Sequence to fold (910 residues):
Amino acid sequence: MNRLELRNVSKKYARSGSTAVQGVTFTLAEGEILALVGRSGGGKTTTLRLIAGLEAPDTGVITIDGRLVAGEGVFVPPERRNVGMVFQEHALFPHLTVYENVAFGLHKQQKSIREEIVMESLRLVGLQTLAMRYPHALSGGERQRVALARALAPRPALLLFDEPFSSLDADMRVQMRQQVRDILKSLKATVVFVTHDQEEALFMGDRLAVFQDGEIAQIGAPEEIFHAPQRRFVAEFMGGSDFLAGKTVLEGIQTALGLLPQPTGLPPATLVEIALRADDVAFTLDSQGNGVIAERFFRGAFYLYRLKLDSGEFVHALQPHTELLPVGARVHMYFNAGHPLSVFHNGSVVQVNSPINLHHLIPAKR
Amino acid sequence: MHLDALANLKPKGRETHRLPLLSLATLVALLAATPLVYIGLRALSADAAAWQRLLQARLWLLFRNTILLTAAVTASSSIIGVGLAWLTERSNLPAKSAFRLLLALPLAIPAYIGAIIHLNLMRPRGGVIPKLLENALGITMPAWNPLGFWGATFILTIFTYPYIYLLSAAAFRALNATIEEAARVFGRTPKQTFWFVVLPALRPGLTAGMLLVALDVMAEYGTVALLRYETFTSAIFVQLTGRYDHSAAAVLSGALVALASVILLAELRTYGKGRFTQVESQWRPARAIALGKWHAPALGFVIGVVTASLLIPVTALVVWSMQTLLEVETSASIFRPGVQGFAAHLWNSLWSAGLAAILAAVFSLPVAMASIRSPSRFTRLLLRICQVGYALPGVVIALSLLYIVNRYASFLYATPLVVVLAYVLRHLPQSVRGSEAAFAQIAPSLEEAAYTLGRNSRQTFLRVTLPLAFPGVLAGAALVFLTSLKELPATLLLRPAGFDTLAVRAWIWAGDGFYQQAAPAALALVILAGIPLSFLLRKEELIP
Fold:
């Protein structure tokens, strides 16, 4: 059974009248982690708050564990939704100890059971020795784990995370997300996880939902999102892509980088854009070439070159660190992908005639 | 499954919980606005002859006197307050933490008590100092006059500068050293940095503080009455008690409130701005500036202010209290048992001010919560209406309550509860501001966390919101307690016969010329006022 279902959920802000989320639809299976990712203001946090019951949708339906919680004239307040939430700044109660914070959601349990659950939750996050401390006496990572224990303790049907690691230092963040993912997977928790960091989303999510202007631009496995973006925005947001203008011809697409022999099915002379990552482009020194080296970045094992085409467009390409090419040198660049590239027309992907076979890309479920 | 969900039918989420809150907040605002509206109506409906009479004879003089005093006291206490704050926060003055406390403590001394002491020390015939000089040196004092404009300005300045001092000291401390360092790096001298960077940074807080001081001076009755400098408040008081001319009193009150409202409106424009200038994590204090050759004059200035505003008044009160207690007869008459005894006065002061503080705190809760949790034009308006008490001097509140209680709530007439009501109406702004600041500091996500952990609105309020806001709400209540203890004119006008507080007793004895007999009550009042004051100073981390 689906743990969570959103059907066509929309919400406008009362104050500004601007649309926060529009027609959001997805389901979440038991034990699955869904990462909502997108720019700030993209609607992902509003979606999370709608699920929690901290906001009411204008239209659409939300069900948790098959029970209607919002829509069709129904609104179940957050305290009766059986969801747990980890907030951005943790939102630990500063006047309560770690123990009392974790016990806060267990007010309906008997005292002896409550004690057992609190200690078990603290053991799970490795904080049983700090139970009597107050939040201000904890480090950022410890606060983070208390927030997790507090959300887990009432055994909610659904766990919600609102950018939980954004207040941590970079190295702590990487460490925490590993720990948190292990805990969530060991508990088979069903999770909705909001982040603006695409790397974090790729790491945390079994599936990703990319938000753009209040709508879900694409939802799918991390590999699918990364390798087969359905919209230009997704390719752009998930990082590392240059966009090269092109014009369709019979044999494929004509670009400043030469002909891309990839049929599009579009009428000839249609303007399109091709998403290029650094490993899709190769180049050689060539005084008769089609561009120059604009900048060179040292990346340890290799150099990343920023190349300027004679058309004025920029692309990136990699070269091994053994060879050092001077900035300003004239080069010849060419397509070197070995797989079909993503082509966009008016911001949406153009389905190629031979569909990309992704199955070899997607490993067995983690 | 749908039936279960239908049981929770609620269309708009948490919005529904806000209706009772908004209604309560509206009721409080209506209560707060009542005296203002009433005085306005009475002043406008006074017969034309009353206006005519006052316009011809007195009104302009009163305007002139009131504005002159207000401007003089505001200016001098600002200069002294900012100067002292700079010295104790930024210079290398010794014993800074001791001076910080000593400079704030005069807040516990009501200005009219200061005026009583001043008069007993300085009055040309019979004053302690002229007598001493005459006995010791055989010279008669030159006929210098402790009364009038200069006397009132002096007394009000030395007892109101602490407001400005505390505000600017806090602002100096919050100022990040990097701002000044940046100015220096960009080529400004220390002097230029002070005038063009530091002072402008202080300005918002300082302006608000000055306007509040101005409102306080305008409302002051005891000092100007005792030192015979006629302002609106003393004129209204005379109309009310001496001539029983309520119509003239209403006209004068209307004019005074109009004047005060202009200042309050200016203050409200600055209110709420720059309140979230939090100390950043990289904050560090600016380096202390060496005073050099100014060291001795600066130290003399600080010690002089402490002496005039704290040491002399307290010493005088202690000495006179001892003298009074040692006289068996006087002592027996002061400490007699029963409702005219000292214990009764103490108790009256305590319970009336305490009840006012509790009521003001309770009334402030819905207004503060509504303005923070459902901010809108309407709740902002409610918040502002609740500030009108600042523009309603004690005499004006008393006048309007005399009318209103007589006509609509006669069961309250001639009970001490009217006095308490006056305190609440006059000092509600203080508790509203305290509570509002307290609620504003609570992140909404804390309440949301409580909801997602299965707690309903009531449990969340009792277990999360209220405990977290409590220190701030308490600070507001402590301020109401402090100012209610010190309140004089409304208490004098509204108290039922026999209901004497410490303030009233000290005033009546002094008014009858028994300055020394007034000392024990005055001293008790100052000590009592020191309790909420020390709590407030500790909360502001001025004393450890």
Notes: Confidence is low (pLDDT under 50) at residues 353-362 of chain A. Residues 102 and 150 of chain A are 4 Å apart (CA to CA). Chain A is about 20% helix and 35% strand. Helices of chain A lie at 44-52, 98-103, 111-124, 140-152, 170-186, 198-204, 222-227, 232-237.
